[in-house]
Amino acid sequence: MGTRRIVLVASLVLLGVIGVAVAIAATGSHGHGGTEKAAANTTFGSLLVSSSGMTLYHLTTEKPGSIGCTGSCATYWPPLVLDSGAEVKAGSGTTASKLGTIRRPDGRLQVTYGGIALYRYSLDTKAGDVKGQGSQGIWYALTPAGTQAKAGTVPATTTTMNSGGGYGYGN
User: Fold this and answer.
1) What's the rounded Cα separation, in Å, for the pair 132 and 54?
2) Is position 23 within any domain?
3) Domain interval for residue 96
4) Would 121 be classed as within a structural domain?
5) Is the distance from CB of 110 to CB of 101 less than 8 angstroms?
6) Are the C-beta atoms of 43 and 129 separated by less than 8 Å?
7) Interatomic CA distance for residues 105 and 68, integer angstroms
8) pTM above 0.85, yes or no
9) Which is nearest to 154 in space by CA: 60, 62, 48, 61?
10) What digits encode the pLDDT tens for the residues 97-139?
11) Is 15 inside a domain boundary?
């Protein structure tokens, strides 16, 4: 009887893990159109964010013009990618010359700012969350200046970016 309970519990745990993985993947499987923007954060100042207010991050181990976050990394850190035919457009407070794209290994175009590839963090669940800030000592939110966000160093303002496209992995 003890062995059956262990197998049952292990099966339930496995199903739970699979369910979480599917939920994470599902949140990133649809495109998103509209405006990407940046919003004021009382701790970090002005941050680049998506149209729904989700913070945009960069991987500090990536060199400008390169992609280092693929596979399971991109599940937790969904890249900001354009829908087919969409263009990147600078919104209020951003610098148009800093906006660009880079081709991901899967062929999609990922939005860059100052040559730095932009990502979201899957555990940021609502607008204004900055739960990925400093994660693993390599993930940091970006400011409209294209620099790493640091607590208490930038006055809070709002900035927008319009890509006309969206996220291939999530909103």
Assistant:
1) 11
2) no
3) 31-162
4) yes
5) yes
6) no
7) 10
8) no
9) 48
10) 888 899 999 999 998 999 999 999 999 999 999 999 999 999 9
11) no
